[in-house]
Design a protein that fits this description.
single chain, alpha+beta, Beta-Lactamase, Heat Shock Protein 90, 3 domains, six-stranded antiparallel beta sheet, six-stranded mixed beta sheet, 30 helices, 14 strands, elongated
Length: 719
Amino acid sequence: MHQPDQDIRNRLLIARLPAMPQILIKLLGHLQADDLGMPELAALIANDAGITGKLLAVASSSAYQRNGRGANLEQSLVALGTDMIKTLVISDSVFQTFSSFPHSGSTDLRAFWKRSLAAAVFARDIARRIDYPHLEEAYLAGLLHNVGRLALLATAPKEYAFNFTARDDEDLCAVEQRTLQITHAEAGAWLVERWQLDSFMADAVLYHHETSERLVAAHPLIRIVRTAHVMACHADDHHTLLDAAALCGIEEGELDAMLASGARQVDKAAAHLGIDLAGADDIPTPPAYAAPLLDPVQQRLSEEVRNLVLVSEVGQTFARQQGESGLLESMTRSARILFDFDNTVILLENPTGQTLVGAPSATTGRIAEFTIPLVKGGRVAESVHQRRTAYIRRDAEALALPEEQLLRMLGTEGMVCLPLVAGGRCLGVMVGGIQAWQLADCQKRERFLQAFGAQAATALETALSERGNARRQLASVAEEYREASRRVVHEVNNPLSIIKNYLSVLDSKLARQEPVATEMSVLNEEIDRVGQLIGSLAEIQPMSTGPRPLDVAKVVDDVVRLFRAGQFVPGSVQIATTMNDDARLVEGEADLLKQILVNLVKNAVEALGEVGGGRIEIVNRGHVHRERKLYLELAVTDTGPGLSPEVMANLFSAVRSTKEGAHRGLGLSIVHGLVKKLGGQIACRSGRGGTAFEILLPAWSGASTNPAPALPARAIGSV
């Protein structure tokens, strides 16, 4: 079985779909045994107030009332007769069950209920016609033959909402298989089996879309439901109708009479049940629709952007916490929301570095008494030693005693062990309890887990440093984290209102613990840009102990590709680059240079947007000597209107700008700080002909000192 199929079945399992009413199960058992008299039937029905009221109301109607006097339940049942009682009890029980499905209250079920009633009526008439002994079983099978559509709507409302009202044919099954890896027939059969109805009903539901050739020798109930389905849902398809009717030996003339009689019975049953079917035939039934598959590269990019935005938001949340206990609670709460952990605990290294000790938690109070030795401590200790995420299943392997204890403590079949590594030191491990079937999905999101772990570890390291239990070198990491958090706050709270709107939507989704995988479909170009900017913060490392070579051309290409992929640049703006192959290596970190360039290009795009278009260039001007030191000069220029004297006077200071947002005016000050961190210098020239930011970056000591002529500009084009 493919993993997606397993996933949807488990989603069906945990969706808490309603159970079949006990009165219906007991009634079916008595009716099949054929040993239920009216007193016993009245006693059984009296246990359900809703059905009792329905039967008394029908019995007191003019169609059944003869003497004008009120009657008790047993007398009313005698007046109605066994067949009507069976019909009303079965129909009302199933109707109550359908009404309890999630999303049924917000969905128009008139057409669905009419087709279900019609299939039930036709199934009973066909069963009577071919002398099938269990008429009530056939009626119930007809009622339930499409219950899988409700189950899929309840389980996957976003993916299935449109197709719930689609035309019920083979095309629908194909679309369901493609989008959900399960058809409504399979989901319905699964649900009937879960209800433990002792019959061939699950098979009848499962095969109601099969061809007649495959069903010629099938059990009578399967052939009955297939024929009833076609009569209820495809009565206008004459060829298909005759083909299905032949399964049960029904001639064309007899078929027309059954269709006419069935329509009258459906109206009568709906009236007795109090179901309004007016306008059911006017509800459109469009062809099934499957959204086109996303380009895998674009889909991966969108997922990465989403994860980076989430991680940056988590980093800000951690930074706002007061004290170690508040931080630990925030870490476990965020992990449960982001990764669907049932429960989460954190184990920290003790001061000697020989044991993992449970960090106190509100949900698992005695975790503080739990310890795991780092020597021979099983898979959890191995995860800490190797700095690698571990995925542990209860039934997959022989577990050490501490692991068995953890699984019992978490109350799950599996767990994810995420090492908390910061500054080359493992502070401990976060253990998330999860169901076994969810482990594969967690493995697919391992990069997201590691980015989350890096943010959590950095925040935890800062807290430990403030408490005084960490080493003195943690001070530099704490400063690194504070600066990184400031950049995150600035980028996530970008002055653009569309980013604010996105974060608001995303925050509300997370607050309701709803999945955010499909949220990326509504993101616009600005969110792609911010996500890539924050990408450098996914794993915050301590300050570098030595210089490292950095290829400027590669970073520039990455930035230009980012803007092109995100469609952030309007068609009226052109971006071009001029690189120098003989002078391209500098000392520094790629993520810092990328953030500098993206901020400058973004500002240039906004400036050109005010004048209706123009040109942006990123130019490598080669090596220059400044104060006895060799630099590489990189310039970002635009043909915009230039900066005002007021802006130029406070260019690299954190001042109030004309943009909106809680952190407006921080952009160029952050750029200035990042350039200084790289050991470089930045200057600006601006006038009516445009603006140029000139950046000097320390050249790599192994780079050539003889700059070559610049290569021709490579126009990226109107992106």
